[in-house]
Amino acid sequence: MVIETNVTKMLGIKHPILSAPMGPFYTTKLTVAVSEAGGLGVLSHINLTGKNSLDELKKAMEYVVEHTEKNFGFNIRTARLQPDAIKLCRQIPRFIMENPKIKEQCTYLITSAGSPRLIYNKHFEKLKESGSNIKHFHVAPSLYLAEKCVNSGVDGLVITGSEGGGHQSYENISTLVLLQRIRKKLPDVPIIACGGYATGEGLASALSMGVGAIAMGSRFISSKECQFHDNIKNVIIKSEASDTELVTGVFGPIRVLINEFSQKHGLVSNKAEKLSEETLASEIVDEVKHLEMSYEGNIKDGAVLLGQSIGIIENVEGVSDIINSIVNDAEKCLTTAFNNILNK
Length: 344
Ligand SMILES: Cc1cc2nc3c(=O)[nH]c(=O)nc-3n(C[C@H](O)[C@H](O)[C@H](O)COP(=O)(O)O)c2cc1C
What we know:
Helix 3 (53-67) runs parallel beside helix 4 (85-98). By secondary structure, the chain is of the alpha/beta class. The protein is built from 15 helices and 11 strands. The strands form 2 sheets. Strands 1-9-8-6-5-4-3-2 form an 8-stranded parallel sheet. It has a 3-stranded antiparallel sheet with strand order 7-11-10, with no helix packed on it. A hairpin with a 4-residue loop joins strand 10 and strand 11. The protein has helices spanning 6-11, 28-36, 53-67, 85-98, 100-105, 122-129, 143-152, 175-185, 200-208, 218-221, 230-238, 260-264, 271-276, 280-295, 319-341; strands at 17-19, 41-43, 72-77, 106-112, 135-140, 156-160, 166-167, 191-194, 213-216, 244-248, 253-257. The structure holds flavin mononucleotide. Residues 20-23, 25, 44-45, 75, 77, 112-113, 139, 160, 164-167, 194-197, 216-219, 305-307, 309 line the site of flavin mononucleotide.
């Protein structure tokens, strides 16, 4: 079964499914597996503090094109507090331009957590002028930001609701409500829906709203190829949707597994309050420490970034099986819905 959409055509992929970026962790092998399976694998912005992130991203891109001929993408967090954002925005486009194989296969840049404009520099312009098919999407957690992104000139939007794992916004709006609002106001903008997706039912619902693809984080963590610790994969398949909560992270709210870490962290409910209490350096160090703990498998004390979709994930499977079953189930759902409407 092939479901072709505006987004699959833009990105040069078979299936309307992307892996969501999951920095500061490595998703290099997952990227290869998702792209090989016909979706679009996305490399993460590796290091919260910015240490070595440029070299890490270059190495990851080289690894991907050595292991697959298929297209892939990458993430840059452009947050004000992200120390390496400007450096990556300038140097990665130049690196891509100098590497023909990477230039051919890298069709997607997702910026997030800050302004989409940071990437609009002369290096990115040159990359586009030199024949690259790269498309720039930005994560929008609200209609206000979606409109700003479109005015800035993005090629598309990743609409991410508050049920999603990891970085969230203060707006705290669900993917379903956000999508309805943005589709009505911006009907012609290519959209990738993100946050809460893990099944064919989810993909079918997104497609029926005119969305071009879905991106999944938690579902792909619980895949055989993902480099995350088995303790995280195992807790996902045992958990309910209610086992996560929002707490305050460096860039704003983060959705995490409820555990010792989450219970020690409150939730600052708005941006103004957060800005007024910025104690940057120590906060970053603390968050990185707890993220690293979780990556090493300490799911009791670490910051275990996960979405509510863990409540609908029942097993650890290979990426190809995950993608094929989601696409097949989506087709069945859409056919059933269509037949119901026609009373067949
Ligand atoms: C472990 C983890 C790390 C994440 N790191 C990032 C990141 O570095 N940049 C980003 O834009 N989003 C990040 N996110 C958010 C995901 O890209 C995506 O929005 C989220 O996983 C979607 O929800 P889902 O987990 O229900 O699929 C992260 C999510 C997780 C679970």
